[in-house]
User: Fold these one by one.
Assistant:
Number 1:
Amino acid sequence: MKPIKVGLLGIGTVGAGTFNVLQRNQEDIRRRAGRGIEITMVAARNLERAAQLTGGQCRVVDDPFLVVDSPEVDIVVELIGGYELPRELVLRAIANNKHVVTANKALLALHGNEIFAAAQEKGVMVAFEAAVAGGVPIIKALREGLTANRIESVAGIINGTTNFILSEMRDKGLDFATVLKQAQELGYAEADPTFDIEGVDAAHKLTIMSAIAFGIPVQFDKAHVEGISQLQADDIRYAEELGYRIKLLGITRRADTGIELRVHPTLIPAKRLIANVEGAMNAVLVEADAVGSTLYYGKGAGSEPTASSVIADLVDVTRLATVDPYCRVPHLAFQPNQMSDVAILPMSEITTSYYLRVYVNDQLGVMADLTRILADAGISIDAVLQKGTRGGARTDIIMITHQTREKNVDAAIERIEALVSVVGKVIRIRLETLS
Amino acid sequence: MKPIKVGLLGIGTVGAGTFNVLQRNQEDIRRRAGRGIEITMVAARNLERAAQLTGGQCRVVDDPFLVVDSPEVDIVVELIGGYELPRELVLRAIANNKHVVTANKALLALHGNEIFAAAQEKGVMVAFEAAVAGGVPIIKALREGLTANRIESVAGIINGTTNFILSEMRDKGLDFATVLKQAQELGYAEADPTFDIEGVDAAHKLTIMSAIAFGIPVQFDKAHVEGISQLQADDIRYAEELGYRIKLLGITRRADTGIELRVHPTLIPAKRLIANVEGAMNAVLVEADAVGSTLYYGKGAGSEPTASSVIADLVDVTRLATVDPYCRVPHLAFQPNQMSDVAILPMSEITTSYYLRVYVNDQLGVMADLTRILADAGISIDAVLQKGTRGGARTDIIMITHQTREKNVDAAIERIEALVSVVGKVIRIRLETLS
């Protein structure tokens, strides 16, 4: 059988990795796929660099529309990043009856519903293993490996930059700004790190996993997105003393009244496997009714790890390119006419545990005030830690709560901050036992 | 579309789990698969129990051949266990143009080549996610998720019974026999635990993963199989002091001259994620050239975790039942005409590091003798630990070596045991850094 023909849109880090791995392992890949996979065309802004990278083995153009319109391309691999141009290119590729592979989580989190509907109508595939957790085959696990299950929750460390920063803050007792600067110097964080450190990238990935886990449309606009830039070294240390690690988790969970969809710093018991995922690594923990807990771990970014997922998708598409679309795995795991309209819950309606740090004037009766306010709000306390004064008569009181509704905590915090003995804002970090 | 019809051979632990999960989650499964999956027929030794379990919803027979011959069955799920009867039933199901799903690692490790060849000829599928690591979708990850990669090694904790025993031995400082007895009482070990504790079960699973990882036939007869029944509490403690945990690992690795295929107790650095997989859990660590390290973790046994994988296979088969066989994933990951004949290495040719414990009369010069013997054999030492005497003038000397060939260690051990100052046999446990 003739090789299937692939057009690359973009040949930056992931594109170059895809080209190199496809070339280096072409023999093994052909032995698996039963058919060659050949990059015939590349669109790049820097034509010279692209020509050098590809060694003259494929046509290099600067107009990506030439690739999506080319009869010499069966599968378009979109690796440009961003939203609008990729959206236009992907939709045009689909309109041209081409299959699409993309690593672009932002694109899918925002325009996935439109893109999958178009692909469905045309009977082509849009594959996106590389969009979540880099080289870890978590999309395949959720979409195919766990089809027997009612999935209860997905919780993931799905942004390597922030996990690297948190690991360094904990290991070295440094503050966020210092570690971010180091991470930028080491290439672990971008010059403009906003999307990573503010949780946006993690929320894109979580949105995609949520859709697949629960059979709902992608709904990035409903996600709660909170990063690590406000996290203080003190809280990492206090958490440690209480037996927890702080990770930036993306969490999506089936609750009684809807779906939780939230990214925020989270305390996790230090003994959990996922609490020990360090540096730039990713891990996703899935809870499901039949299988229980499963965890998937690996490199969440980088040239060849991400290329590994791009190429796995290329092999899948190569195999199934000619079959009846009904025989393929649906884009979002559930058949498109079988999606659920269960709502994403507002943050006030989620249920979790909390780490609360209150900075107080060390006065008689303040603990009684705090515990009374929590009791009034129906919040029970699991642990309390009172730390020595930081100069003067002030002290940190840390309370770990049992599970409660977020709105109860909002109300309690408002009352706590109104106490005269309380200084400044209450620090609130959510806590998941993941048991 | 009408439901696809499934016949169960056996309705013990996994069979009952499969029936229950299929029933409980039938709506979610149908929404994913696009078609119902219905158990129409069950073969069981205990007809009464089977009728009770299935609540009269399907035909129950005592002759499994009635199931594999029935026109009312599209997919046969083999859950009988053992070798000969399942082999006969599976081959007959294939001959009858039925697809097969099996959880039977022993069957595939021994008769896989014959079974897959028969299935290939008939154009039917044989799916076996449940045969390795229970509910963890490791077969899918290796076979589909990592198709871009040249896989370098697979190392797994793939037997829950032995991992439970090792966890208990370490936690409580107990010896093997005591913990085995407790495990039997708790139902974590069978009345005849031989297959588990002697590494046979792990070797069955490893044999299957090795075939998929490297594109070679299943070759259980070439596997090195070593269990934990000889493991002493002292060595678990010494390993701990040196920063290691002992796990029963199944390891298969691509070496320069062939493939390593071995199950044995193994020291692993305690800080590795896989070293912290405790109790009856399973985990598989895969090293591959593009993606680097990935790890897959979850329940390796039990009714519903294993059923989760059986049903995932049923969904896959349901989707692809009618497509051209060439469009499906090959049984052993590589196209059947593209298998490699690279040899499995004899144990003397493998390369790893070693923990050696020598029990000596505490005489002047014994350390010099030991280090000279290792140096003569070309083995360099990474660490030495000398422990206080255990009554009298005797002492344990523990040496950790750098990587070397097993035959060098065999030769050195022979010379060490011949020293007059050495008492009894040298304890040798292999060590993997898994870095």
Number 2:
Amino acid sequence: MLEKKMKSDIEIAQETEMEPISQIAQKVGLTFEEIELYGKYKAKIPFEVINRIKNRSNGKLILVTAINPTPAGEGKSTVTVGLADAFNQIGTKTMVALREPSLGPVMGMKGGAAGGGYAQILPMEDINLHFTGDIHAITTANNAISAFLDNSLQQGNPLNIDPRRIIWKRVLDLNDRALRHITIGLGGPVNGVPREDGFDITVASEIMAVLCLATSIDDLKARISRIVIASTYDRKPVTVDDLGVSGAIAMLLKDALKPNLVQTIEGTPALVHGGPFANIAHGCNSVLATQTALKLSDLVITEAGFGADLGGEKFLDIKTRQLGSTPDAIVLVATVRALKMHGGVNKNNLKEENVEALKIGFSNLKRHLENMQSYGLPVVVAINQFASDTAAEINELMRLTEALHVPISLCQVFEKGGRGGIDLAQKLLPLLQEKTEFSYLYDLNESVEEKINKLVTNIYGGSKVSFSAKAKRQMREIEENHWNNLPICMAKTQYSFSDNPNLMGAPEGFEITVRELIPKIGAGFIVALLGDIMTMPGLPKAPAALKMDVTNEGKISGLF
Amino acid sequence: MLEKKMKSDIEIAQETEMEPISQIAQKVGLTFEEIELYGKYKAKIPFEVINRIKNRSNGKLILVTAINPTPAGEGKSTVTVGLADAFNQIGTKTMVALREPSLGPVMGMKGGAAGGGYAQILPMEDINLHFTGDIHAITTANNAISAFLDNSLQQGNPLNIDPRRIIWKRVLDLNDRALRHITIGLGGPVNGVPREDGFDITVASEIMAVLCLATSIDDLKARISRIVIASTYDRKPVTVDDLGVSGAIAMLLKDALKPNLVQTIEGTPALVHGGPFANIAHGCNSVLATQTALKLSDLVITEAGFGADLGGEKFLDIKTRQLGSTPDAIVLVATVRALKMHGGVNKNNLKEENVEALKIGFSNLKRHLENMQSYGLPVVVAINQFASDTAAEINELMRLTEALHVPISLCQVFEKGGRGGIDLAQKLLPLLQEKTEFSYLYDLNESVEEKINKLVTNIYGGSKVSFSAKAKRQMREIEENHWNNLPICMAKTQYSFSDNPNLMGAPEGFEITVRELIPKIGAGFIVALLGDIMTMPGLPKAPAALKMDVTNEGKISGLF
């Protein structure tokens, strides 16, 4: 990410002449008749196509993950997009599979989340705003469940729901802290049953996780029906199916389940679909999109949210079990500035050269590297270059990585597009020919406690796990309900291997406390809460929206 | 609406082979390149097209309105669609301009709202569910304003907003009574400023009214900037512009502002766009859609919500002022069953023949007729036929209407499609050649009180208007802020000319109390509340959603 007088992301995006989406579809063998257009530059892939191609052999799969990031992020999406463009430049038919951005952070802090510089997906304005309506459909489906639930309370409570034990929350795709803790049903008997409630951001909804893990409409409906929304007064789980609306909710999501086809700046076909949080959920784009991309191209580049300890681990231990295939190689994105931060440098001094801090902070990269290798997969390190990186820092980082016999590449896709990722692609190419022997971190039939222990000791480097009284009680309930054999979705800070965001580098010997265990039976995982996890962000004093505008001709500015 | 063993609406819809939307566009002279496809059977009309055709002369315009309805509605949409099909059958190039349905009532009571029988707009599943995302965009824009407002309170309240005097509410496009009265911002200082709030259904949002009255993106943005959301502690109005987000909110609505093109069962081009409530708002589809249809075809059939006293009056006194043109004729839809109800028959006995009750209830039709004629427009009565209507009843209704020298037609479009509306079309055709002399009910520069007096005495038949203390205070505020010269949007029951839903027929001598006057400065009207107006419906004991489902192939059932 060289910062010398470059154009803004939206300027670069708006200067790009996009290919009609039907032409992008042709590149992956789909005819105009087969896709569902949403304007000229977006399309959905219908189930007829997904069924037609389902018996094809799969292309290769590369997972892009990262070290523990700085608050600004380390440019995983940018590397993912640029790498796919690079592979297409060197003759490998490649697609991208990415998450779709949430509007809340776009209007709040980020301004946009579709890659950056010359490694973006387009049309960036649409993708960052309403796109094809998937997230709005999820919001509606989520809140319809809430409305049916509160209506059931109102209509005599035939399901014997304990209003104090409703775990299903409402959602909006906005940053709106004032909705975190609310009371509803006020105003007397005709206006509902009073109770506490709260709104999460839509991408934290279990519906989002369900949509991203479902392999068909039938599977989607089955998952929806299993979602646990509350307990009865005698502590039995109440599900969406108990409300009798699984079919209606699946109906609301039938179009949202279809993967979205768009393109990169260089015309690489991209499936951008689903965007669950990587803390409270598993943080990867949809299984259907990745599966579809694997059928349509020789190589798929995909990413997982946050660092390799969160999104990366969950991709491997949660998503691959639904995907039916595993990555052939992993790209671990690192930045000089993040490594210096892990070496003790203050956030405000990250632009100053500091080779010593980099050496110390390298421990963070090293542990992520070893973790990813422990799944039996080859790893390549990608340095996402920034203007402030010095030659001495980059050389030291290369030396340290090569001493571990791990390939490393200087990645300049932000500034150069695919051309800036050709070296990375060439380092990956031979690895894709090798046979991998993938192994999961844990077996599903291990106990919840054993799985969490393995995560904390083998991946995070902690020494001990303890469980709060609440978590212990929840563990018993999980056993009673026979939910033990689900994978674990760890909800912890993205800034550290530990549950303390200030513990940089590769901390050891720390203890982890599991505060809560939340069964997400529709998604099919147990969330282990290791701290206060923000599921509804707030807006900053000066939200990004203040700079946004649209002309009378419909041209947008202020998304950056 | 003959009820003998007919197929359900969704069965008829799903059996219809639709034309590709590009073919429908060709019928009105638009090329494939000019429209923005949303799947194969929906498209948006971009601003380039709207600008290209704006200097064309207008087609003729027919407004379909109705007598005071029964709770089930009298089939205005069905007549509107069938009449357009009929005109196309007899060689008049005709388009339909309709509102888009709200998802809340679809999931709750109605099951679907896109016409009925053989007079429907298609694809009915899409139109009834997420359609092209317009209503979701409105939900998001509305709630973004709330989030920015609460963020302003949280960040030191620089606008000096009085949290007790915030009138801007959040919205969802669902029936969800538990959200009518809520408290937000609970949970301590990092979670917002505690205050009372509530959710309306999205179609009751001022943003919906704004979108439906805006004539361009610039006009949309200007209207948004003027929306009053709160008062300061010293009782000054606070607007969206004060929050600094008018541009961002307009940006969120730029695609929603483009009219949606679909088709009727008989392939008539239909613009289905915008759907404001007809009580708290003006109840008509968007000005841009109606204007566009008038440029694209020789004749446009459009409808207004509820009866002629609500939607009809507002179409004429509010929408036409933005539209820049007025109807050439009015169709007043009546049903035998509703007239019998106005004649005193209980809702449960409406299927029994009762000519005497019909004669009495005819007073309701007669007053609506005279009201519509008072605008200087020719009116034709359309009997929307039901299976339970007897020949004696229909003959009596025809006799009574013809005695007033008003054309009347028996309309069978539900059962027969356009063929069932040819007689109605032929009765309208000569009227369209006549010159009309349209006159508004009131001038904009009359006082708020004078305008409301004219509405109550001239349209409703009441004798006196009184204002609550609150309304009197609000009237003074309206004067102080120079908002007097806006039209009035009456919010009252749709079941009676009066503010009492049980006062059937053509009541006289009643008094009306205006409880509140709510300035909707973005929409550009003053809402006069005549009673408790439901702006967030509830769900019934057995919501329509219980019967809805979707197959693994994506086929929907249970929308009826």
Number 3:
Amino acid sequence: MSNPDVGQLQSRIADLEGLLAAAQGTGSSLPLTDAGLPGRAKIAAMSSEVVDSNPYSRLMALKRMGIVDNYEKIRDYTVAVVGVGGVGSVELANMNRLFFQPHQAGLSKVDAAAKTLASINPDVIFETHNYNITTVDHFDHFIISQGSLVEGQPVDLVLSCVDNFEARMAINKACNELGQTWFESGVSENAVSGHIQFLVPGETACFACAPPLVVASNIDEKTLKREGVCAASLPTTMGIVAGFLVQNTLKYLLKFGEVSQYLGYNAMVDFFPKMPVRPNPECDEYHCVQRQKTYQQELARRKAEEPEVAPVLVEEDVVHGDNSWGISLVSEDAEETSATAMSGETPEVVEGVYRAYERPKEAKPTTELEPSDAASKVEQSLDELMKQMQSL
Amino acid sequence: MSNPDVGQLQSRIADLEGLLAAAQGTGSSLPLTDAGLPGRAKIAAMSSEVVDSNPYSRLMALKRMGIVDNYEKIRDYTVAVVGVGGVGSVELANMNRLFFQPHQAGLSKVDAAAKTLASINPDVIFETHNYNITTVDHFDHFIISQGSLVEGQPVDLVLSCVDNFEARMAINKACNELGQTWFESGVSENAVSGHIQFLVPGETACFACAPPLVVASNIDEKTLKREGVCAASLPTTMGIVAGFLVQNTLKYLLKFGEVSQYLGYNAMVDFFPKMPVRPNPECDEYHCVQRQKTYQQELARRKAEEPEVAPVLVEEDVVHGDNSWGISLVSEDAEETSATAMSGETPEVVEGVYRAYERPKEAKPTTELEPSDAASKVEQSLDELMKQMQSL
């Protein structure tokens, strides 16, 4: 074999340089992300300066608008996100979601997600852990108590994004034990409803306080799933529920607005049930009941310390309690309820349900509305719902 | 200068091949996207087969779940998306949104968006047009009447994602003239509220039917904007409003669920006002009034054709009319209302507003709720609101 010609080698180098420039974005001097594409440089301090080169100007504008007192504080917080849709590697079937990109097929889901996120915002520190939290060994590993940026402190919040009961119960147990505030989230098997729930051990219901059917009857979850059938999933529903989760995370961490204790989403009719969820004193979860006792003692202590002349303010410090806005609850159809129960969502039908508004009898030519005075009461208790589900 | 050494050239080639492989994802045989990364191959027909290599299995599962009759139909539709946040090139300040990636800085926004989207789903055909729709010349160009996949037919839907009144009014005029169904969307200047609106010329209110303050008083929008101040923007709020827009687009095109005529989002308290929006017979927009007349004639014709024994069904074919669910409307705070009005959102406070639910006096140990019978009426008419805004 003869030596390669210098001209051929130089031509090959020019070709490769061209391909590499194309792959990386032509003529860019930006640092490369791990995908080999140019990303932006890290930014040491968040600025509110209105210049094109500042990616934070529109978030920092929230301060000037009077929405958030101190947006920079976001940099001090640590959030543990549990679950990116099951342990495993990224498959094409996951590619209907923006999180995973085709060239990442075969990577572990946590690594693929971390790489995508790091390329979007290099200022965030990502730490990945890839294991099953539901086995006993791994549960010991599931340490959220040391994850803070401040040495030895717990994380500021846990976000549950898992897709099964067992994992939710593992997170619930860990958070009750540690007194860790967390958000639970989920989308139904038919992809057209979802919810988020805010859980403060002792103060709000834990995940076991109002147990869904599968957990309550100790049925093996796997026996409920149909063989060879995959659940539906809609990026729109997932995006909206994820939006609710992150928006309420921002409200909780940055202390603006009101955090919703339970917020549901029914995509078919754009209905959003919202309600406070109180803890169950007879909850099966040992640490939940202990946390409830501690919380009640704390409330009693605070009340005792109040000056006698002051009006009685119970739960004075519960910033994120009930909302001052209207809440309306209406029944879902039976199919939806059953799908919801099977996929681990809190049943959204409770006792004492009203329609807040009836359609006016005649079409009106303007945009003004006159609600009917007679609200129709939908009677369906949680007990009845449980009976219906058990008979299925 | 001496000739380069063959060994050096070969070493350089090996380095470049390594860098290129890293930039493109190692050892992949997938087709390259325009960013030089491996994408997935096009898929000729959508399949519901549950295999890891099928990115459509979880969307097609919506058929088996009884949600959507024919998901494949999505491939026949053409949607015109107007606006990706202002004409211009992509700047770092846009990078707080997932749509634009750091290596795209300097591209036009429509091209950057199209490239990102094409790399996510190569099965969608993207056609980009980059111009200002509000100038007369460009308005003539703004042809949505020939955009269908079927030669000579109009697009199936127009989505307005523009950020100013002038552009909304241009789209409104074009759609009224063409009888084109469209969705309008927007996020407030303070980034914590937003809305979508469904507009069917003649059947629902057009964008000029209930004119917001700026349009009504013919004020130049630019004089309302403060110098050197940029509006706040939150990816969460934008993501949720975009989710509502696309979810309702899917419901409209694939004929499932109910399309919301007006759906608002208040992030501070997770409140979602929803209402039908009827056309104004005295609307200033010439084609809107013409469309209303045609629609009323059509309704009358249908009514006349009904068999005499049948019950009177007015608007029989209006699939996406009012919903059968509760609707509750409550007032927003004054600041929010004013920001909303300035950024072009329909005022969400209307006459006759009730609280559907009052917080129970005592905390309950379970998750069951008992709504109070006494609903407090919030009295604030649209007229009062307009007066308040005019006095600002």
